Amino acid sequence: MTVPEERERWAVPATPLPEQRTPAEDRAAWFSYTTANDQIVWSAALSALLGREPAEKEMTRQVLARYVHRDDQAVALGAITEAWTTRVTVRATLRLMRSDGGWFDVDCRLEPMMSPDGTVRGIRGTVRDVTSRERARREDARLTRRGETVQSSLVEPDPATGLLTRARFADEIDRALRRAAGALLVLRVQAEEAGDGGEGVRPERNAELLHQAARLLEDRIGPDQLLGRVGPNEIAVLLAAAGWSSARKQAATLVEALRAETGARAWGGLVRFRTDAEAGSHDLLIDAEQAWRQSRETDQQITLVAHPVPARDRQGSYRNRVADALGTDRFTLYSQPILELQTNRVTRHELLLRVLDEADGPQSPIQVLDTAERLDAVFDIDLWVVERAMRLAAEQPEMGLQINLSGRSVGDPRLTAEVERLLTQYQVNPEQLTFEITETALIGNLSEARRFADRIRDLGCSLALDDFGSGYASFRYLRLFPIDLVKIDGEYVVDLVDNPQDQVLVRALVQVCQAYGIHTVAEFVQDEATLRMLRELGVDYVQGYLIGRPSPVVPGRLPSA
User: Residue 471 pLDDT more than 60?
Assistant: First the structure.
């Protein structure tokens, strides 16, 4: 029910909007200024444009400040000065303020008024309303800026092969799942000279092989079929709306073609999907990858999975793979130095997980971690990283370490207890450690994550937010968690010097963090010009190839500047 006060408030008539203004005739809108009395006068038409008459004793400086848009006052003053000193007519486009607080655009023609002795005794200005023209110009400029700053497509090709990346390919699988049944084929190619574990193959040979395989497959798939690079030496083929029988025949043909024409070893894993299946894109990719591994183990060209693997079996299988990788030292740590700009010293390192692939050596763990998070198998990986970080911190007590954690582990109640146990076991100074969570990470339990954050800060560790600015939750996380440091997403740093829009964004992010009492790190710093600009913007730390590339961790030997 509405209360009486509310009824009275809404009964008050609204203030009428200002009437629509019609442009004045060019010849009628004018003003003049003379030095004799240091006053300005203007025509009735200009008064109509401005919505007010000039005050009788209003001085010229007051007029400039009151009637010219504040961002254009320097332009107006410069044009007046030029006309006065050069004694020639000057033209300028600027914005004038109306009495209702709005503004409009004008072309202003400024003519010096001369005395008989040849000196300038005043200025006469003619004003023409050009709001429509300037609005159109600004809109064109705005659309141009948006066109330059927004990606033309979400389809990001893999730089090595030109194929879809794993993430974009997974999106296409999900689209296909909504339309019709089909099949997914994952192919593994490996150089013939590789041993059982893939040792002895030059990385450039594998890159050449993968590029060759991608071009061969492009020539042999149908126009409605898609390719994607889904692993270091893996290419996936999406056979959307394909029948199972035709999918089997095409998969066998593609494997045979890879073996015959590239001189490489090749295996395939083919998985059928239906629109009513519970398995999603990532589940199907995992099943197909498991299938090609089975092909390799059984020395077959292709393994068929006619029905989706039960979720429990898939999770168990992947956990076994993670345990096997941890037990056989297929995970390793690299470190990258971080420079403190105040002291110009490397005072900390970020620890980076790498996976030793069968053929290519160290690989980014993104694919492994993404799958492990989805199957709730990432905790053991994070714990492995934390324990080795503790050992390094104990061996080098003067160096700070930044440790990446998955969102799932941050929300796992076991993590806090393990961190406390390891701090005690290795006698580590907690101030050496900063735990990083990725801004885009899927945190399993926000309440538990907050408890973890509060507890590690009570212990003396710090908390960092990685990839700041890359996702929707950036500023929300600053309020949810006691963040000590944020890492500005390198996407906004790599072209900073040549991109004014990125400069505005980075400046704003730094100012927000300073207001919150948070330190900032800029990633992807690759040249001196970018470093100088980041200093000017107030960034606290920098990281990138200019400072140092990631390198394998050698116990007790993290270099400092």
Answer: no
